[in-house]
Amino acid sequence: MAQVMVNFRIDEDVKKSMELACREMGLSMTTAFTIFATKVGREKRIPFEITAGSHDPVPFQRRRSRAEAQPVYEGEQRVLVEKQQRLEQLCFEIRRSLTAVHIAIPSSITGLSMEHIRMLCGNELKDKAAEISNACKSLFSSRNTDLLQKKDLSILDQYMDSLSSIAEELLDIEHTLVPAMKSCSGTAPASFVPYEQRLTAVSQSFDNLAPVMEQFLNSTACSGSAQTVRTRIRQASALIETPYVLTALENLEALVLRHCNNLDEQTSSRLESDYLQVLELTLKELAQAEREGRDTTGQAALSLRVVNVLSQVISDSGQLQQEWSRRNLEAEVAALERLAAMRGDISGSIGPEK
Description:
With 354 residues, this protein is an all-alpha fold.
C-alpha cells in the first residue's frame, strides 16, 4: 500500500506531552496517529466522546452503579485506604509537575544550569518519584494489609507530610519556571540558577524520605495507654532544643512503645498522673530557660533524671507490680517528695537512679 506524507501544525507543548506519553507506551507518534486514523476510517466516528460538558462520559446510571460497587471500609481498614489514596494523589501530582517542567524546556535554551534542570526533571527526579510510587503500591498491596495495621501510622503521616512538601515545592517551581522558560531564548540567564538549586534541594528531600519509611516499617502500632503517654511526651518536648535531652526523650518513646501497654492499671495511672506531670513541668522550665538564653545545664540535668525515673517505671514493670501490692500511704508520699525534689520544690534526694 502506498504511503503519503501528512503535515499539520499543533502546539509545541501538546507535541512534547504526546511524545512523552507515547514513549511510556512504547509507541511513536506516527504509530499513534496511524491507530487513530485507522479507527476513524473503520468506525466512521471519532473513537472517543467530544463534549463541552462534564469530562466524564460515563452515563449517570453507570456511574451510580460503579459507586455502589465500591466496598465500604470501616475502622483501621478505612484509615489505610485514605492514606493509600493520599499517597497515590501526591505521587501523581509530583509526576505531573516534573513532566510539565520537562516538556516545557525549549531546545533553544542552552547553558549548564538549564541542562542540569533538564537532567533533574527528565531523569533523576523522575526516577526517584517512580521509585516512591512503586514502593507505595507495594506497601499497600493486599498481602501487607495485616502488617500495616501493626505499624505506627503516625510515622507514615510524617512521610506523607514530607512528600506533600515536595509536591508543593514542585508545583511552585512549575508555575514560575515554565513561564520564565517560554519567554527566554538563547543561553539560560543567571535567573535560572535558583531553580536549579531548588530542584537539587528537592532531590535531597526525596533521599531524606528513605529513613522515614524504614522507621515506619520497623515501628510498632501505638494504642491505648501507650498512645496517651507518647502524645504527652511529644507535646512536652516540642519546644526543647537541647540535643541530648531530645535523644533521651526519643529513647523514652521507644520504651513506651514496647512496654507501656503491658503496665498494670495502678502503675499506668500513677505514670500518667504523677510522673508525666513532673516531666512536663521540668521540660517547660527547660524550654523557658532556652528561650531566655539562660544557662540550661541544671534544668537539662533535671530533665534527664526525670526521664530516667520514667524509663525505670516503664521497663521495670514486673518488679513494680510486686511492689504495688505492699506499698502504703507513707511510701506513696515519699515517692512524690522525691519527684518534687528534682524540680527544687522541696529538698530531698532523687530515686530511683542507676
